[in-house]
Specification:
Length: 132
């Protein structure tokens, strides 16, 4: 299937509102991926991202799985329980965290920042560092 990037002003999917977003359609997930998880592109499909390996979340794009074969690659993601500040790829597969990973060989890559307790401005940075 052809892949499309759609710039959407407002899109409502499964009761969750996304606004000012870039979403990829007709994408393939690894079987364990669930909607709402942080994912990276393997070159063939999207798999859960984590900060324990430089290759996985850094050499390809990252996004948020939306379900229905859709991946948010940039924009406002409606969620809950966010604290104020920056968010990074977590060492837990598929998750993000407000605390930058700090163990040796962990990857620190900024993925966005909160706009309040319910919105993540998902803007993955193109740069990252590996903790020595």
């Amino acid at each position: 299937m052809a892949k499309f990037i759609i710039l959407l002003c407002i899109l409502c999917l499964s009761g969750i509102m996304y606004s000012q977003t870039d979403i990829l359609l007709n994408e393939t997930y690894e079987s364990s991926v669930s909607a709402g998880e942080l994912v990276y592109f393997t070159g063939t499909y999207w798999d859960e991202a984590d900060a324990t390996s430089e290759a996985a979340p850094c050499t390809t794009g990252v996004g948020i799985a939306l379900g229905n074969n859709q991946v948010l690659i940039r924009g406002i993601y409606k969620t809950s329980g966010l604290s104020s500040g920056n968010y990074y790829i977590s060492t837990t597969a598929g998750q993000w965290t407000a605390t930058a990973p700090s163990a040796s060989t962990n990857v620190v890559r900024l993925i966005g920042y909160s706009l309040g307790a319910l919105e993540l401005n998902f803007q993955p940075d193109n740069t990252w560092v590996v903790v020595p």
